[in-house]
Amino acid sequence: MGTATLEKNDSAGPVDSAENSATHLITVTLRIRRFNPEVSEEAKWEDFTLEIDPKERVLDALHKIKWETDGTLTFRRSCAHGICGSDAMRINGRNRLACKTLIKDINPEKPITVEAIKGLTVLKDLVVDMDPFFQAYRDVMPFLVTTGNEPTRERYQSAEDRERFDDTTKCILCAACTSSCPVFWNDGQYFGPAAIVNAHRFIFDSRDEAGEQRLEILNDRDGVWRCRTTFNCTDACPRGIEVTKAIQEVKRALITRRF
Amino acid sequence: MSTETTQAAEPEDAQVTLYDVDHPAPVIEPPRARTGKTPKASRTNFEMYGWLFMRLSGIVLVVLVLGHLLIQLVLDGGVSKIGFAFVAGRWASPFWQVWDLAMLWLAMLHGANGLRTVINDYAERDTTRFWLKWLLYAATVFTVLLGTLVIFTFDPNIR
Ligand code: HEM
Ligand code: SF4
Ligand code: FES
Predict the structure, then answer these.
(1) What is the domain extent for residue A59?
(2) Which of A128, A152, A186 is the last residue of a domain?
(3) Domain of residue A99, CATH code
(4) CB-based burial, B97-132: b 16+ in 10 Å, e otherwise
(5) pLDDT (tens digit, 9 = 90+) per residue, A71-124?
(6) A18, A242, B60, B147 — which has fewest CB within 10 A?
């Protein structure tokens, strides 16, 4: 396979390919919100200018900066392919995954701002303390609860029953939704959209038996009734989950089951 | 500890060496973070009823408030007609008494519950929350009771 790629390059001619790769690079400025408590209590913006292929992602730009310019730049990433949920950040004022955001899609003519997600404690640069986020997740019991004997084979479920909660199974716990919610910014005790999405995942699962309990948890002061249908969460979700709709479905379930 | 002596010895460096690995700057924590100790569910339907009430009272208020504005400000000569006699005439009828009573109660409770939401959103400290809500509830009870009293004890022959 390696040879095939090489041959392709060769046929294009060395001068041509060099020119090509040079011309499709563009100059972009990343304006990154830096914070290092070991140096200063102030967070400040820092500009990095680099040459990059516009079809690369913001994560590639961050890598380039970290590997070639400033090794102290700190951010989380793991899979680099939109599935682990570790690199949610506020890019040009919107929560996105750096690994799913192409440079060309976010107006590279202007400086691209990159900051940590809001509403969680910034520990360093783009890294936030995710503990409160995962505490809310834990509090909705995000695991299958059943009674009776364990079946000797898989638990059957019809295609329609599976479809009922399909959307909310896609969550990768990136916190883009919760950290885009103004209610969460102001009061971190609110469960937040991500926890509700993951409760929804089990509340509407025909195999689960603790739906009532989860509804009870979300019926409380810090539960679904604090949602003001801002739709920030739906806009932010990199998995395209209809987050606000899921929250409304939990509200509706509460109302229909309580009356 | 060694840092303290360094700082004292080199004051011109104080700004640079104020924070280091062993003495990091304080981080900025968001308001009211959720922890394992966050109070657990209270097991009441209060928030649900509050949410439903906002929507139901809102629907009724559309009719009551818009009707009220129409009658008071637009129809039959607009504001110029409003006077003691106009009010006395309307409150002579039980229909308008009930209309105004419903509007008073619904708007006050709707507004109060709305402000409760706003306080929950913006007041960070528990004591701030407590006092703001106490003030809100006191003002609401006072206004609702006083308004109700006036609607029912209004005396058109007062001078
Ligand atoms: C005219 C018809 C009205 C309708 C249809 C209506 C509807 C609503 C609804 C549905 C909410 C809840 C919003 C949410 O939970 O996200 C709300 C909130 C609120 N309403 Fe009304 N309302 C009306 C009149 C009034 C009046 C007359 C007052 C003042 C006495 C008032 C004061 C408030 C306040 C303070 C809030 C909370 C604001 C917030 O949540 O940010 N509303 N209204
Ligand atoms: S619902 Fe979407 S935005 Fe929220 S945590 Fe899950 S994947 Fe991220
Ligand atoms: S690095 Fe895994 S989701 Fe972006």
Answers:
(1) 22-128
(2) A128
(3) 3.10.20.30
(4) eebbbebbebbbbbebbebbbebbbebeeeeebeeb
(5) 999 999 999 999 999 999 999 999 999 999 999 999 999 999 999 999 999 999
(6) A18
Give the number of whichever ligand sits closest to the CA of residue A248: 1
At A122, the amino acid letter reads V
Tell the residue number behind the tokens 């062993």, with chain if given: B22
Specify the pairing of strand A127-128 against strand A122-124.
antiparallel
| One domain, residues A145 and A252 | yes
CB contact under 8 A, B122 and A186: yes
Q: What is the pTM of this model?
A: 0.86
Class assignment of domain B9-153?
mainly alpha
Q: Is A81 left (phi over 0), alpha (psi -120 to 50) or beta?
A: alpha
Q: Indicate which atom in ligand 1 lies nearest the CA of residue B65.
A: 1
Residues of B in contact with A254 (CB under 8 A): 48
ipTM above 0.85, yes or no: no
Domain-by-domain residue ranges, chain B?
9-153
